[in-house]
Amino acid sequence: MSKKMIYKGNEPREFPRFGVFKPGDDEIEFNETLFKTGFFEEIKSKKKKDGDE
Fold first, then answer.
1. 37 vs 5, 32, 51, CA distance in Å?
2. Which residue has the higher pLDDT, 25 or 48?
3. What is the pLDDT of residues 1-18, one digit of tens each?
4. 4 neighbors 15 (Cβ within 8 angstroms)
5. Which residues in 6-30 are b (16+ Cβ under 10 Å) and which e?
6. CA dist 43 to 16, 17, 51, Å?
7. 28-29 and 40-43 beta bridge pairing
8. Can you tell me the distance from the alpha carbon of 31 to that of 39, in angstroms, rounded to the nearest whole number?
9. What are the pLDDT digits (tens) for 19-46?
10. What phi and psi values does residue 5 have, to the nearest 5 degrees?
11. Mind giving me the DSSP string for 1-53?
12. 6 has which bridge partners?
């Protein structure tokens, strides 16, 4: 399973070569360059227990 992250800024912000991110946008694939800006946080994966759906 690949890592995901989400934008955590308070207002929309444009990141050249990556696009515009808005608060509450969908999860995106983890990107080290964007993560290092400090405006994104990694989403911890949720492990499913046997029998959970």
1. 12, 9, 39
2. 25
3. 689 999 999 999 999 999
4. no
5. bbeeeeeeeeeeeeebeeeeeebee
6. 23, 22, 23
7. unpaired
8. 12
9. 999 998 788 999 999 999 999 999 987 6
10. -150, 165
11. ---EEEE--SS-EEETTTEEE-TTPPPEE--HHHHTTTSEEEEPPPPPPTT--
12. 41
Indicate the burial class of 39 (C-beta count within 10 angstroms; 0-12, 13-18, 19 or more). middle
3 and 21 in contact (C-beta within 8 Å)? Answer: no
Reading the block at residue 34, the tokens are 């964007």
pTM (global) more than 0.85: no
- Residue 34: its pLDDT value, please? 95
